[in-house]
Structure formats: C-alpha cells, structure tokens
Design goal:
This protein is mostly helical and 285 residues long. Helix content is 73%, strand content 0%.
Amino acid sequence: MNIIALLLYLLFAPLVGGLLAGADRIVTARMQGRVGPPILQPFYDVLKLYQKEQITVNKVQDFYVFCFLLFVIITGGFFFAGGDLLLAIFVLTLASAFLIVAGYCAGSPYAEIGAERELLQVMSYEPMVLMTAVGFYMFTGSFRVEDIIQTQTMPFIYLIGVFIGFTGILTIKFRKSPFDLSMSHHAHQELVQGLQTEFSGKTLAMVEIAHWYENVFLLGLVFLFFVNGTAWSVVLGVAIALLTYFIEVFIDNNYARMKWEVTLKVGWFTAITVGFVNLLVLNFM
C-alpha cells in the first residue's frame, strides 16, 4: 500500500471536502440570486461547533459518531493507499451502521425517524455501490485500486452502464435533494435536522468532517472510471469528478425532496437496469 498517498489523504481530504462544501454553498447562493458565504465558511462552522457547549442526550452516541468518523477515514485510507476496493466499501457500510445506531440511541422521535430513513437510503444505494466494485473486478480481475489504476484501458469504456448507475445514486450518497431524507442536510431553514437532531458541539462537528472525507472518497470512485495509468487520464478523471459534483449541486437546487418510496425505487431501478445489465454484457465479452 502507498503510505505517501495514505498520508496525503488523511491530511488533505478534509481540506478538499470542506472547500467543495464551501463552493457548493456559493453556487447554491448564486443560483438563488444571493451573494453567499465565503468559501471557507464550512471550516468556520466546524471550528465554531468545537467551541460550543457539548450537550449529550446519551453518552453512547458520541462513541458511535466517533466510530462513524473513524471508519469513514479508514474507507478512504484503503482506497487512496491502493488497497482492496471491496473491503473499502464494506467498511463504509459499517460506518453508516454506526451513524444509524447513533441516531437511534439519542431517544428523540425525530432522530429515530431520521435513522430509519438513513437505513432506507443505505438499502437503496448499496446494491449499485457493490455492483461498481464487482464491475471493476470483472474488468481488471482484481479488487485492488493500484491494479485498477495501472490498467491500460480506461474502465469507463467497458463500464458505461455502471458509471451511469453509480452517478445516479451519488445524489443519495451526497444527501442532496431530491433524496435528502435523513438529515435535512441541505434544508437549513428546518428546525428539525432528522438523524442529527440531538447532535451538538464536537459530535456534530465530527459528522461534518466525516461527510467531507466520504465525499472525497466517492469522487475518488468517479475518478477511478477514467484513469488508465497516463498523466492525461489523471487530469481527465479529476475534471470529471469535479464536474460530477457540481452537477449534483445543480440537481440539489432544482428538484424538491421526494418520498422515501421513490428513493428506494430509484436506487434499485438504477442498479437493475444499467448496473446489472452492464455486468451481464461484460460477462459475455
């Protein structure tokens, strides 16, 4: 495993994730005819949360949120160090489980409903995420990221359906409208914040930092579709990853929130129609 890449990820992923969150706010503000906050505002918010008084409903929830952050970081560590992609996805699922349990143990009805919706979101996007890992394995014969990067052919050419399916469920993973169900993460006018209603201070700051790490990992998966061992493919991959993120921001600002039933249907329909069909065709090639 590449130790240097791992250290760079640990140091710069929250910086990149925070800057993307700041750019998200600016683009959203401009689309709504506002000036918007400075691009560093997410960092100011997190620092302010660390200075707030810590009010904990259940002491166990702080431990679960810490585990959520820890396993999200481990997920990206496996990925950017060139490790096993499938294992990274399993670890990310475990991280989501810790977040869900943290919501349940808060004892708030709003947090419990948010935890239930978070569980439904996991059920909706997980099949497509797993198909993405399987698609890379069928294409390269390996789950290791370092082997996928060194392939001479761009994976996107053979995994177009998987790419479409994965970018389709990214709206759910990024917690953006129309699938912002569990946290109201982008509905700041709401008083009830779903899963994180009872989170405050350092606990809420850890959730935000975990989202930054997670978003960088997800964009890394988008990047993986376009890299083939050459320098220009790296530039192309980074450009498409950033373009994908801002397309998600555009969708977030142009569509109203949908019901949880629609989220589940979209996730599974996407996985079956484009993801599974692509893998089926790839199996006979």
